[in-house]
């Protein structure tokens, strides 16, 4: 017999006198009764109240919102020490001598405490680098770094200028090379001026306006210039001991006979004065008898195209119409001299850089030309008309670097930067070498051939022989007659670490307790390959990036 | 607080927003005005120099904005109605002006298309 209970709600069989099922009865019970008056709050009010309460609870849980600027400060924070990392007893400090000593190649050196805060002020440490993992900031000395330090020594003695544009893939260590250059310059008591991010000059994030009097119109960036002056003062404490040596046409209120740091501080405090004070400061720093100057810029591709700024007629302004980028390029190109010697380094960027066909093509052309000058044959794939030349019996032209693409509208203002670079027409490597090499004796300080990595060494020595002279009086004298070569911009390709350098670096990581693996040949080889041929940025990612 | 054309703007207000708050100034005109006075796109009112504020006010004073722009709009619609052209008639009836269907979905037209349009 079928049960009388309702299967759906398991209710007792209803006392159904009226013949309705149990569920139907429930429905009748639940049917709302309509009242004409109610003392309870309306449903909508209840809902909004609940919403409010929920929001307040959420706010309480989320805590206090960060103050203005706090999140940015966190984002830009550079941590240079980790007390949990082990101290490495064998770690040596960088000194003015050992950075230019070839026997220190592939050795990890730590930055001395006295310059760490100055390098930080120069904004050479980047947030994406893994400084925060180690007890103190240390870098592996690469052969390129040693060579640069030697060239800087040369430059000081022979009062010439090292001009380099750094190219290389992403994470290849271009910014580290700049850091190394800045550290070297500080150890050698040079004056350092850095532009840590070229993008900041052109992305319309700081104020701008036309400079008075100058025609054609040139734009200034007062706030950026003031920040730059501040950076110069903090980076170069020696400015406090240097006094003004000449008269400047400065706006009223600037007393004479100030120290250079006090002069710069005036510009920091009053942005309206920043531009004329920067110009006066540069005149002072390039006066005869001052220390050599190192000028670096990271993100060179940014300052060679149209900016995000607009002119009063609503046209985009070219970066070279701004005072600071054009100031930098004038020193890079050799248009403005550095009479006390120095170095001007510009690093390309591949993380956030815009496409700049003019710059890319011209740099790759220069690179090939310079490679030919150093006696390296041209890679056949670099010369698209090679099959034609070979087929028509014009092999002698095969080693010529092809011209720029005639079907591309290049930016003449960017090409102008490289116009002073000595690029003789190359018929054969031998002829061009004899054309460009200086009459002085062969380089003595740069003989790195004695140890390891022979192929690279030969190239290095050849490069240095075309680009630097021995630190002798004769070289200094002969240099004066070789002005065109002085403004030669060297295209410096930064590649991955050698396996030897990578091993040395990994051993340091392991000794710090950060890398928990046995640093064997096999491990180094594996990591080196995974890191795209020892790119330092990638090595950091593969060895230090994954931490559980 | 910065006074621009008789209105106080807080220092934290972006200049482009302040300019666009005036009837008759949209994104393009605002960008052009700012470029004319060398103001960066992200600048805030507090960062403006006195001279820039005065120049901006002078510029805005000479432009057809706010009530003048609204009046101009009404005058244009009135002219259309007075010459009894199709667009004028449709405005007067509160119907869509540009050939749209009217059977359904003409709420916007009913709301906006009138001779004394507010702007």
Automatic annotation (TrEMBL), chain A:
The keyword Transit peptide applies. InterPro entries: Ribosomal_mS29. Its main location: mitochondrion. Signal peptide: none annotated. Residues 423-448 have a biased composition (Low complexity). The keyword Mitochondrion applies. One of its GO terms (cellular component) is mitochondrial small ribosomal subunit. It is found in: Mitochondrion. Keywords: Mitochondrion, Ribonucleoprotein, Ribosomal protein, Transit peptide. One of its GO terms (molecular function) is structural constituent of ribosome. Residues 462-475 have a biased composition (Polar residues). Residues 38-71, 421-475 are annotated as: Disordered. It comes from the Eukaryota. Belongs to the mitochondrion-specific ribosomal protein mS29 family. This is Small ribosomal subunit protein mS29.
UniProtKB/TrEMBL annotation, chain B:
The keyword Transferase does not apply. GO terms for cellular component: mitochondrion; small ribosomal subunit. Keywords: Ribonucleoprotein, Ribosomal protein. Pfam families: Ribosomal_S13. The keyword Ribonucleoprotein applies. GO terms for molecular function: RNA binding; structural constituent of ribosome. InterPro entries: Rbsml_uS13_C, Ribosomal_uS13, Ribosomal_uS13-like_H2TH, Ribosomal_uS13_CS. GO terms for biological process: translation. PROSITE patterns: RIBOSOMAL_S13_1, RIBOSOMAL_S13_2. It comes from the Eukaryota. Gene3D superfamilies: 1.10.8.50, 30s ribosomal protein s13, domain 2. PANTHER family: 30S RIBOSOMAL PROTEIN S13/40S RIBOSOMAL PROTEIN S18 (PTHR10871), SMALL RIBOSOMAL SUBUNIT PROTEIN US13M (PTHR10871:SF1). Belongs to the universal ribosomal protein uS13 family. This is Ribosomal protein S13. It comes from Gomphillus americanus.
